[in-house]
Amino acid sequence: MGTNTLVKYPSVRPLAIYASDPNTARGRAIEQRSASERSPFQRDKDRIIHSSAFRRLKGKTQVFVAHEGDYYRTRLTHSLEVSQIARSIARVLGLDEDLAECLALAHDLGHPPFGHSGEYALAACMKPYGGFDHNAQTLRIVTHLEGRYAEFDGLNLTWETLEGIAKHNGPLITKETGVKDLPWAMTAIPNWEALELSTFAGPEAQVAALADDIAYNNHDLDDGLSAGLFSVEDVCEVPFVGEMFADVRRRYPDISESRLIHEAVRDMIGYMVADVLEETRRRLKAANPQSANEIRNLDHAVVAFSDDFRAKEKPLRDFLFQNMYKHYKVNRMMSTAGRVVRELFELFIVEPELLPKHLFAQTDGPETSVTARVVCDHIAGMTDMFAISEHKKLYQPAGYF
Q: From residue 169, how far is each of 102, 259, 318, 352, 399 by CA, in Å?
């Protein structure tokens, strides 16, 4: 990648020696002149926010389908909450806040409609054609599908942002897995090998990954309570969670239930952030990295929860799995959502002429790999309500003609 660092970017706060420094960023695939008022990572963050894929997150499921109510989290509100947590952690650790926030905002761009149910359905449909993975789809969006700029496809993001998107959850290539297990969309990226998929991501990407864990654990609990899938009394039976609720009640004996929930969730987020900071400082002290690249080449993540908290967290994850993600109301909703995705794919791939004209022009006949990927991109970009509307027009046309 070519350099784009023609100016020096003063940081609001001094960066730690192991932070990703915008002044030594590895550059972009298409070289561009630097903007003196914004660092490369600030520009990446701004491009993400202005992208079409980011706007569509407002209509994509977190857990509840978007039309279920306007209180529940969508992928957009979830991404904003993740970015706030990531920015806060990065600031305390002396990391580049813009890069951490950028990666948090981008991490769910590739999710199809209907959350994980939509992803499972699309992955099954795409199995004969190279598979589907939302992280790989995010990279496809920012390197190819976004069409906003005259000089390039995608967003032409920096190497640091691309590698953070690709492997914020850890290395993608190991001796056990190898390149053969990478989803097609990952290896379709120009010069994908340069992302060094066998190493860990930089520290800001690791922060974004932990911020995601913190956000969805707490906010899914909040949404589940609001939806009536379980009660405060139920969650108070869960170790750690029950302690947090009991502590709020001790401090505020007459608190209303809604405020009790918000205070307890707030305290749990604070507890998790404090644990990440303490464990990360311990790991940084032990490893003593002198650069972000040294962090990438360690044999373990440096940004992490402690083992003690991981043990405390397991009962919460188990509770949410059994009482929320597997609740019969959610199961029904997700089963229907999966059928919508599957049936749209099955129809479009055998009758690509039903696609919008500009997409049909990109296909090369029924049931080919090229057509499957066009159909996959189209469905993955849909919001929940658009997918439902398209399915209704194609499968339930009464009243449409």
A: 16, 34, 21, 35, 47
For residue range 71-114, what is the model confidence (pLDDT) as tens digits? Answer: 568 899 999 999 999 999 999 999 999 999 999 999 999 999 99
When mean pLDDT is compared across 182-196, 208-222, 225-239, 341-355, the lowest value belongs to: 182-196
List CB contacts of 152: < 8 A, sequence separation 6 or more: 29, 30
Q: Is the dihedral of CA 266, 268, 274, 276 positive or negative?
A: negative
Structure token pair of residue 184: 């097609």
- How many angstroms separate the Cα of 221 from the Cα of each of 283, 315, 397? 30, 13, 38
Cα–Cα dist 189/375, whole Å: 18
Question: Is a pLDDT exceeding 60 seen at residue 4?
Answer: no
Which has more confidence, 204 or 332? 204
Q: What is the DSSP letter of 131?
A: -
List every span in the chain annotated with CATH 1.10.3210.10: 39-195
Confirm if 348 and 355 have CB atoms less than 8 A apart.
yes
CB 195 within 8 A of CB 167: yes
Fold of 39-195: Hypothetical protein af1432 (1.10.3210)
